[in-house]
Amino acid sequence: MVISFEEVSYRYRDRGMTPILGLDGLNLELEEGRMIAVLGAPGSGKSTMLQHMNGLMRADEGLVRILDFNLESGDSRKIPPKLRQRVGLVFQYPEQQLFEDTVEKDLLFGPLNFGWSEAEAAEAVRRAAFFVGLDEALLAQSPFKLSSGQMRKAAVAAVLAADPDILALDEPTASLDPASREDLMQRLHGLTKAEGKTVIVVTHRLEELVSYADDFVVIKGGRVIFQGTARELVHKQEVLEEAGLMAPSSVRIAGTLAAQLGIETPEMLPDAAALAAWYAGLLESQS
Amino acid sequence: MKRKIILGRYMEGDSWVHRLDPRAKMAAMPLFMVAVFMVDGYMGALALLLFTLAVIRGTGIPYRYFIRAMKPLMFLMLFILVFHLLYDAGGSKLLDAGAFKVYAGGLEKGIVSASRMALFIMLAAVLTFTTQPEQLAQGLGSLLKPLTCIGLPTDRLVLMLGIALRFIPTIFEEAERLWKALQSRGLDLSSRPLREKARLIIALLVPVTTGAFRRAIGLADSMEARGYRLGAPRSRFRAFVWKRADTLFVGAFLLPVAAAALL
Ligand SMILES: Nc1ncnc2c1ncn2[C@@H]1O[C@H](COP(=O)(O)OP(=O)(O)OP(=O)(O)O)[C@@H](O)[C@H]1O
Ligand SMILES: [Mg+2]
């Protein structure tokens, strides 16, 4: 178990008088070396949960275990820097993460904080920029001159540069074009397979993770209401609805076709290839 | 970064003070100020304090929020008190410790001056805690309306005020988010030399201010795109309705003024 949340509650207290519930007795266990998708309607607590993963937010109640660190509620000891290095967090709004006057300095910020030598840090930055597909010419530019897609890539690279074991990304594909989106997901998936890292991705698009994520977690009202595979999730209509999600189009098409042909909706992997294979099979059996 | 400034925030609620016309609450402020400045003794200060506590009770917001609102100015109040104790030699001598003498008159003046400030902050907090920023700006606009005829650009002032009130908390929140993101990447200020600390804090200001500017420009464009023009006639979404409670509220603030004038 690389991450575990036990009955974790968190309330936001700074806006007005009545505390706003962020997490409500959340339970979660995640395995090492997997890619995990976190889904849920806006305001369900996804970002709040992510920020508990490297001690930025401390639980009001419950226990958070990350790697070999235990973060108990009520414990106000300083978070060890090692935890921050091993768990990288890419925030939801990249423009609120970058701050230096060049992209390169921004990418260097993490590695230098964690005490790497300049040569090591520079090498890590170059690798991270290449990994996310950030043009090297942009490294000398001000981060505030980048387009929002480029900013997003820079924000991901800035976290990856510190070589975390767990990488948690909050809606990393929000401002990316479809090609970069697919590319990023593929590369993140590669990290889990080749380097055994654990990657957690918050998203509102079920489809972009269907073929990559091993595990799907659906959150509602600060609690986990579903954890399982894509195959299980796409057929749970009520869970999808509660999370404000739609079944992938392949599943919907299969459903409509099956209804028209008067046969049962097939259980299949929710992607275009599986749909095509099923349909081809149907055509063949009819001719 | 953790403990935030609370004065100037809006606290959701549904008390009768929340429901008052913002113009009534604003009109009460200068009246209250007059009363506060007319007070010059323990009895008067105590009476005003009770009056203010009654209004605070009406807001349904716990007293501790009002105390927190005073925190940033606590030091100044203490300073005022000490100043009077040291330099005001009126009335009977209460304490004589060599160079340090405390007179009853000094003590009274000190306490009354410090409580003037406290009273005023508490009432200002009542206004901002119970009135949404947009309503505050809009209410001010309609109070200032008559001044347009002497050439004061009231719309413009009100728009500016409204946007500023709306943006200040967002800017704080933005700074806080950025701060969190940096901590997440291993920022630890305590271990850094002073020069490096100063450089980081200045570096932090850059994205926050550019972000605010960018947002303000975006806002101006989007307002224009949606047909907003300064000075053009415009219907209000929530027109103010002056009710009897409003008249009573403002009337109630005449009481302390009258009492202070008569006593
Ligand atoms: N800074 C804050 N102050 C007060 N309440 C907050 C704050 N941040 C979040 N909340 C509240 O906490 C709850 C969970 O918010 P959170 O940001 O974790 O949702 P989310 O699932 O990430 O949503 P989204 O998909 O919109 O990013 C919401 O009800 C939200 O209003
Ligand atoms: Mg979020």
Automatic annotation (TrEMBL), chain A:
Belongs to the ABC transporter superfamily. CDD domains: ABC_cobalt_CbiO_domain1. It is a peripheral membrane protein. It is found in: Cell membrane. This is ABC transporter ATP-binding protein. SMART domains: AAA. InterPro entries: AAA+_ATPase, ABC_transporter-like_ATP-bd, ABC_transporter-like_CS, ABC_transpr_CbiO/EcfA_su, ECF_ABC_transporter_ATP-bd, P-loop_NTPase. Keywords: ATP-binding, Cell membrane, Membrane, Nucleotide-binding, Translocase, Transport. Residues 3-246 form the ABC transporter domain. One of its GO terms (molecular function) is ATPase-coupled transmembrane transporter activity. GO terms for cellular component: ATP-binding cassette (ABC) transporter complex. PROSITE patterns: ABC_TRANSPORTER_1, ABC_TRANSPORTER_2.
